[in-house]
Amino acid sequence: SILEERIKSCDEKSVEFVAYNTSLFSKIPSDYWNEWDAFAERGESHKQIYEKILQEIQKNKPQRTLVVGCGIGTFLKILREKSFDAEGIEANERSIRKARKEGLKVQHIPLHQLKKRETYDCIIEPGVLSSSVVERDYALKCLPLLKQALCLGGLLIHVPYTRSLFCSQDFQSQGFSLEAMSVPKNFFNWNYPKQWYLARRSH
Questions:
Q1: Do residues 135 and 16 lie in contact, with contact meaning Cβ atoms separated by under 8 Å?
Q2: Where do the H-state alpha helices sit in 20-158?
Q3: What is the DSSP secondary structure assignment for residue 127, as one 8-state letter?
Q4: Pairing, β 65-68 against β 120-125
Q5: Long-range contacts of 194-197 (CB under 8 A, 24+ apart)
Q6: What DSSP line would sit under 36-60, residue for residue?
Q7: pLDDT tens column, 158-170
Q8: What angle do CA 119, 174, 64 make, to 5 degrees?
Q9: How far is CA 17 from the centre of its chain?
Q10: Which value, in Å, is the radius of gyration of the alpha carbons in the chain?
């Protein structure tokens, strides 16, 4: 596929992916953000992802949920409609303002600055720690912070965008046990690989 060729090309050239420079967000034309927000609000390309994550959440019935990189809060609204206590963290101030106007709980905290301790029963990571977004070293530094923020027995749902930066050993070495999580049937979004992780904090 085109995506596989892009990944292979990057591997051969030893390309290093770095974290977003959030200071550049303010320099992007507002028309772009308006179009992106409208696309995100419709949730068309992520509908199957949201539905699958929601299934896992409904099975586990968490008391408190965190969405990492929640954007304008599309999935937070879905969780609120289902009566879940959920909040988000986001780096883009414009997205935060929009989410807060909807009455959503969103904090301006980059993931690497997350200081929560045993606060959440469930953390949803929908693509922030992916190869097209950050480098692997950054992702590995963030994984212990996600574990720290989870209560014992809490669930981490990692749905990577383009390609995950983790392997099963990364989760296991941090004290997670992996559980089966199937990708939706006839999944159509080519940006998301069939490599999703459902990791439970075991100690």
A1: yes
A2: 30-42, 47-60, 74-81, 93-101, 136-149
A3: S
A4: parallel
A5: 195/160, 195/163, 195/164, 196/157, 196/158, 196/159, 196/160, 197/156, 197/157, 197/158, 197/164, 197/166, 197/168, 197/171
A6: HHHHHHHTTTTHHHHHHHHHHHHHH
A7: 988 878 899 999 9
A8: 20
A9: 17
A10: 16
For residue 56, give the amino acid letter: E
- Helix orientation angle between 30-42 and 93-101, rounded to the nearest 10 degrees: 50
Q: For 3-38, write each residue's pLDDT tens digit.
A: 334 334 444 433 333 344 444 445 555 565 565 555
Query: What are the beta bridge partners of residue 176?
Result: 201
Q: What is the pTM of this model?
A: 0.79
Q: Are 122 and 154 in contact (CB under 8 A)?
A: yes
Q: Which residue has the tokens 């070495």?
A: 173
Give me 126's structure tokens.
Answer: 């929908």
d(CA 119, CA 111): 15
**What single-letter amino acid sits at 35?**
E
